[in-house]
Predict the structure.
Amino acid sequence: MPRDLPVGNGKILINFDKSYGLRDIYYPHVGQENQTIGHLCRFGVWVDGQFAWVGDEWHLERKYMKETLVTDVLLRNETLGLELVCHDLVDYIFDIYLREIHVKDLSGKERNVRLFFHHDFYISENEVGDTAFYDPRTEAVIHYKKNRWFLANCSGTDKWGVERWAVGKKAMDGMEGTWRDAEDGELGGNAIVQGSVDSTVGTSVRVPAHGQAVAHYWIAFGECYEDLVALDKTVKDSGPAYFVPRNQNYWRLWVNPEYLDFQSLPPKIIDLYKRSLLVIRTQVDRGGAIIAANDHDIVQFARDTYSYMWPRDGALVASALTRAGYRDIAHGFYRFCAAVIKKEGYLLHKYNPDKTLASSWHPWLRDGRLDLPIQEDETALVLWSMWQHFRKHRDVEYIRESFESLVQRAADFLCRFRNPETKLPFPSHDLWEERYGVHLFTVASVIGGLKAAASFAHAFGESELHAKYEQTAHEVKEAMLKYMWNEQEQRFCRMATPTENGYEQDMTIDAAMYAVFAFGALPPQDPKVQATMEAIRRRLWVKTDVGGVARYENDYYHQVSQDIENVPGNPWFICTMWLAQYDIASAKSPESLKSALEIMEWVADRALPSGVLAEQVHPYTNEPLSVSPLTWSHATFVMCVSEYLEKRRQLMAEAVFAHTIMPV
């Protein structure tokens, strides 16, 4: 079930599902230690002897308050005669999740409404040895194990602190959990339980006929009991109503760091641009890790998650943030890379947010010999991204610190990791994590990375290194043209596999071949680039009412159709936007940007109502598939808008200049 409405502060990340069920609670890192491991934490309402858990029987509208990371969720239940408006947030400083609930009567009579909040914690991602107890000092329920402590509290019309509570056993001996206890409007009030446990707390509000009342619910996160007491006191001293406007103001400031002329872009594109920046922010850990996605349901498909830092994804996201003006977030990512890069100069497959090595399927042994378990583009793209960052921000002192430890170390590795005869890079794994060989995406990334390193060396007066990196980039480019261009097909191959007689070309059309221009290997106007990109557009566009671009021909991942001729694969947001990036890069007039604008509108039309973008969509129904949100999807949209605006300004200026030149 795709996740929606992420809220977070770089240490806590909260995800909801499409039914507004609270599903994921990540703490103390974004993407590390899902304290619910995807189990549902329920929200229920009791009134006039009737009870309903929020879910399918409710009319539901899922949105955010404009330009914020504060939700704006409408819930209506005609049977109960109630309408609820909920605002969820994670405070931008304090480790507090808070929900404000506005309860409105639709029946025309005064009501006493009870609200129930259920917690299905799996502390540190397992249920063994948890404790839950009622704490009379804070009048809250507390869960803990070792140094993970969570306090759940609430306030209603008459009371600060929980009015009703239950702690109990779950998921053993047929016990479903304390949420069942709430369905009669009451809770048992037992004091403490250990082992596999859950809890439910409740508060109540008096709602006048056709009127409204407000309740609040919050969870504080800490490493010990004293942390929770201090945070709970912060909420009570300030008043829970203080936190919604506080966070509204902060995020509106954050997402509008400087004036940006959107040049008459449609409002839906502007809104998605800002929403994408905010969603990206929820996926970035305070330690610098940019996490690919945090939708725990993918475990059901792969028995693993996307909650890792892939250097490639992170580099491209950091580049998008750089273009949008968010220098400090990019700095954190580059510091992360500098901390984990091997002394030999390469980055491994992926990392946990705490900088430890993450799970991997890349083997260290191949054909009886040691083989590096890497995707070489991940090392190269960090260099490319850093140069894009330096070009914009010129932060000399920051780059000076990492020139030798990261830039030079990685560039020297790219120079060494090549076939000495052909000059192409040695084989490694592709960006889709499916094939081993020499990939066009990787080769283009290496060229871009080496050019970036050469530019850094030139900027810092390292003339020998500048010459070395420039020469190596040239050699790799010439090898790419020699071994990866197919004269008969008149386009590049996606992969070349070494053989005794050279390379065997894989001519499958793959959207990732866009990299041949994207990182500066060849200019977008090069006829070879044009031919390759037109092949992608012609073959990979999904020929249904949905449209969009598939990853490659006969893509098996979450495949829903065997009609390969019309549906070569599911449409991916990033692949579709790569076409827009090409159209922007190759545009020669403001009018020729129209196709890129249409693609950006296509993306905006297929976002979830909240503005969240999944990885891919169903080719017949537009339903989100795989993980949601995908950080890379949002970053590519930010990059598209930034590149579009920059190119349009350039082309408009050129048009004005050409019009004003007087004939001699």
Q: What stands out?
A: The two ends are 67 Å apart (CA to CA). The CA atoms of residues 220 and 232 lie 7 Å apart. The domain at 41-254 is CATH 2.70.98.10 (Beta-galactosidase; Chain A, domain 5). The longest helix spans residues 631-660.
